[in-house]
Fold this protein.
Amino acid sequence: MNLLLIATAAVLSADVSTDWELARILVAEHEHNARKASSYAATYKEIRWVTFRIDGIQRETEVEAHVEEVRAGLNLFVKRDETSKVLKGGPNDRSGYTQRTDLIRNNEYIAHFTYPYVSMELFCNDYHDIHAGPAVVKRVVGRGPSTCGFGDGRTPFSDIIAGGSENYKSFHCGPVNEGENVYQIEIEEETGLRQRILVDLSRGGLIVSSSAQHGDIIFEMEVVPNEFDGIWFPGSWKQTFYDVKADKPTRIFTSTLTSLEFNKWEAKEFTYEKILPSEDTLILLFTGTESRKYMYSVDGVLMDSTNAHLLWRDKAALQPGG
């Protein structure tokens, strides 16, 4: 860290435009810590509050999720157990339902269960529909620790800086207060997106605060870093979405880490076969050559509808009176 601080001071004292040089120094420290934290097994608790309108009726829902996340490079396993409680809404709104999401990303598959357990979707790695496989990953992991702290809530820190000045209308980077190690990056894109990022150089270069506004939507993220075995990692984090016109938040996600271990490589072993439900379940299989194909999980084995119906027929024949 001392060498990095000396290099930072040298850049700041240089008679050149320092914004991009300083930002790249911040990324170098950030990446040094991020590499040490790239393999982990973490569990955390998430409280999600959402407000929305359907047919003119305002609805409010609170969801409590217990999440298990194991990451080893690009290999990833996420399991989410959620319980929903309707705080305000119409008479037909359901309260207390449970939902489980399992997602696996490895060299072969992305998969997730969908409520209410009657179906499961499998996305093969060669299925590149932006509204399907990649969107599933973003939706499931976008609120987790690998995004919050190591990015701005949407994009990894290194990717924000990698594009260079030609991709931004304006870009400024500098210390928040003289003599402190927290740095602020302000970005304005040609699209009108304005963003502010705070990076704590003394805490692994983690992004501890981020805000972005585009039109009438404001996104804010706050991260409290903790040090675990010499590695800086988010201990808690909060994401808030605001509606400027309504002058109030529409979604709030508050998460707290409950356990953490580094250098966990079990994610390499996860395959879609290991999460197929033992009960008979409809499977929607998405591949690069077909938009979707109906399959079934029967006794934990993936098969097409013809073989599934033959097996069900044989099972029925074995039953008393069959």
Observations:
- DSSP finds five helices and 16 strands in the chain.
